[in-house]
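Can't attach files on this board, so I'm pasting raw text. These are the components:
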Amino acid sequence: MNDKILAADNKVMKRIFSIDTLTYQDGALSTKVKEMLGLVSSMVLRCDDCIKYHLEKCHEEGVTNDEMFEIFSVANLVGGTIVIPHTRRAVEYWEELTTSKQE
Amino acid sequence: MNDKILAADNKVMKRIFSIDTLTYQDGALSTKVKEMLGLVSSMVLRCDDCIKYHLEKCHEEGVTNDEMFEIFSVANLVGGTIVIPHTRRAVEYWEELTTSKQE
Amino acid sequence: MNDKILAADNKVMKRIFSIDTLTYQDGALSTKVKEMLGLVSSMVLRCDDCIKYHLEKCHEEGVTNDEMFEIFSVANLVGGTIVIPHTRRAVEYWEELTTSKQE
Amino acid sequence: MNDKILAADNKVMKRIFSIDTLTYQDGALSTKVKEMLGLVSSMVLRCDDCIKYHLEKCHEEGVTNDEMFEIFSVANLVGGTIVIPHTRRAVEYWEELTTSKQE
Amino acid sequence: MNDKILAADNKVMKRIFSIDTLTYQDGALSTKVKEMLGLVSSMVLRCDDCIKYHLEKCHEEGVTNDEMFEIFSVANLVGGTIVIPHTRRAVEYWEELTTSKQE
Amino acid sequence: MNDKILAADNKVMKRIFSIDTLTYQDGALSTKVKEMLGLVSSMVLRCDDCIKYHLEKCHEEGVTNDEMFEIFSVANLVGGTIVIPHTRRAVEYWEELTTSKQE
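---
Top answer:
Structure tokens for the assembled complex are below.
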């Protein structure tokens, strides 16, 4: 679907996508930490699709199960119980990712 | 799904769940009023799962149909028309709850 | 300042103000309960001016100190620690209101 | 479903619906511009149902494809990448609307 | 203060600022309409500094008083009464801008 | 002011404060990383007081200037330009913190 957004050839949208790539690259902070920052932001803003995306990236970066639940903790503390349903779905997806990894 | 969150044995998440139980207990305010407060908060923050949960609790606490629509009114006034789609789903679920009750 | 908004003679703005008055009138729910609903909504949406307004109304409706802190509890639980700074200012204003009452 | 909300005969809800109609009528600003304002607001507040509604209205008002992507640009710039998943769904629905139009 | 952000020489921040400029340029939609879109977005997201910025731009683009209040209407309808305090401050600033213009 | 909240002797509020302390302790993730998570969450939720608090903690944890601007980048990308005014104030406060440190 991002293809469709890009196909429209709108300069602003294209640049936003390109900054998105730039932002998470290794720098003073590692991609791993940045993806954790992206994840917690997506959780407190309660965007399920964004959460899924960053869960995948965190998984690729080798975030462990205990680390992940500490990210969930910060998100639920700062964002409140309103974040719980999103955490439920995040746990479910995280389990899928980490289970398929072990195979 | 809450079981999975709790199974991870993360202290912070566990304590948040236990405070959640504590918060809605009868105190200076009745559980009924507190559940109405929880519902209206969930509506203005637009969390459908949270709304469903508090609708069930409000139903158990004997909130009437007219009271419920006055809660919806406050939510839509304070939160704006952006709350309407969530109100639609809330009305639908409330109807299910109250219809099954009458049987 | 509301006078300036109304002076502009914009129909929509005028009607929103008049619905606002209507919403909090005694009905199936008392004005007291509705003001508590308005307050908790303002807290989770983190609008200091709205919080102040509803604190005044709650005070007029005879909300007690213990009741008020239970409203604060729901707001901080549902809305997260992001609500704490607003709670601080609310406590401060609530104290002013309740202290001046006792005189 | 709006019928069900209205059927409950709650004065506040009825008036909110009637103001909603009033707000988007031609005035100093055209309905077209107002629908664009409603759309961008729905996007930054991330309400998919509201977005769909305003996409339909924008389509009726003759908003072009290039204009639509400029609205998407403002929404994604102001609201951040958190708006991207909603933009994806908006693009998909917009395509449906504009394709069926051409037939 | 933007100078300080830019002085830090962070690529992502610099690009976000440059996209910001690009987004509001005349295109399929005029700068005037885009600034109105930026304003209404800032209002429903309740960012006073952003509102001030777009009020200035709208003023430069020749938005009239009646048009402005119709933007306020959409913002208050969609975003709810939580937007009222921000509207108050917006009206006050708009008055300053339009009064100084007439001189 | 937290003293006043705690003085009210409300169990829920007390426990929220105690979880807050627990959440940011060294665990699978270091306090440093957790404070960065708390900061970025506060930025996208646009809470200036919370931002200040986490800036202080990040400073104590030895977050460097380049790292800090990468956190700002993620916040502004994910949260949008609506975060810019909060970033401005954050940069200002960060400068105060880091300048006084060097003395």
